[in-house]
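Re: the request from the purification team.
They wanted to know what the chain is likely to look like in 3D before they choose a buffer screen. I agreed to run a prediction and write the result into the notebook, where they can find it.
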Amino acid sequence: MATKHEQIIQHIEELEVGSKISVRQVAKDLEVSEGTAYRAIKEAENQGLVSTIERVGTVRIEKKKKQNIEKLTFAEVVNIIDGHVLGGREGLHKTLYKFVIGAMKLEAMMRYVDAGSLLIVGNRYQAHKLSLQHGAAVLITGGFDTSDEVKKLADELQLPIISSSYDTFTVATLINRAIYDRLIKKEIMMVEDILIPLEGSYYLTTKSTVADWHRLATSVDHGRFPVVDENMKVQGVVTTKDVMGHEYLTTIEKVMSKNPITVVSRVSVASAAHTMVWEGIEMLPVVDNHRKMLGVITRQDVLKALQYIQKQPQMGETFADLIMNRFHEEKGENGIYFKGEVTPQMTNHLGNISSGVLTTLVSECGSHALRQFKKGDMVPENITVYFLKPVQIESVLEIRPRVLEMSRKFGKVEVEVYNQGTMVSKAMMTAQVIER
């Protein structure tokens, strides 16, 4: 039987997109405490089912699929720009596809405004009205209001009209930054993107028998299965080794390995791969926050996903990318090394290179050196910095990695950092190899 928490989540999923949700109403409808309702609504927000907006409340939104993760809803825009909603609250769940800055004549402006877009403009009432009639939402900068006629039209068309005290440049920068961050997230593949869902997974229950295991293993040609109880919560994992020598009528609960390693759906594939390699396991049950089974992933699924990621175009630069863009690879007598300048963004308040940037340089250059010997993704296990001398802004650094040891699963590299021929830092890194 589902718990009260799970019943509330299911209730929220069944609500129409755009419905307002309150703790008090949910508690009353489902006859639960307000504390239980509040915790369930917060989890629904984490799952992307609802969004909470200041001065509006909590609204049921459409859960975005992975391919649209770079898109924002108007509800999220309100939070990003610290805005407040003047009208069209029923449309806050809708998705923003592009934004247009209205810094031109009205006729020219309307050529760029179409359905699903957001017009960013000042206190130009006619532009507000025409934008809504074109199917676009409106964001008014400078903290200005709009006319009652426009507010009424926004309510009728269910298109949000939002006001923000920020200027146009600041608003556009904040929205652009949010979209850019999501482009980076889009590239990071999560377990939920590759899991075999529950309806497509093979599993046994605690009441199943060894005979059931044999029938299932014969039909799917492998012998690793998660074991769940009557509430679909993972209780164990059973393998060929576990059932060997046991009678056919023996229950799986007696032979399974209890308290198995599991993974939640919002973990990156790289992290799951690290766990599977480190623990030497072929299959991971995927669970929610209450250990209820959502599906499974296998080592083969993970390897395919990592191979797929390598073929995708770069969608956005991470901090590591920005740092390494200032360094270029060169070849010397002792192998490859990296050369670059310490920019102002890499320094701390004293004008010296920050320890975080140094760690990134060691990790990236060390991993690059290891990839000369073994193709795959390098996951740093440990970085030890022996010493670090102050390195000032605009110093030119040479980073010289030297591979000390390389095995099938692990690598060890020593990294020396020089400034004008003088060693300013020395570090050791060990990394796990995840083969592509």
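For the purification team: The radius of gyration is 28 Å.
Please add any questions underneath this entry.
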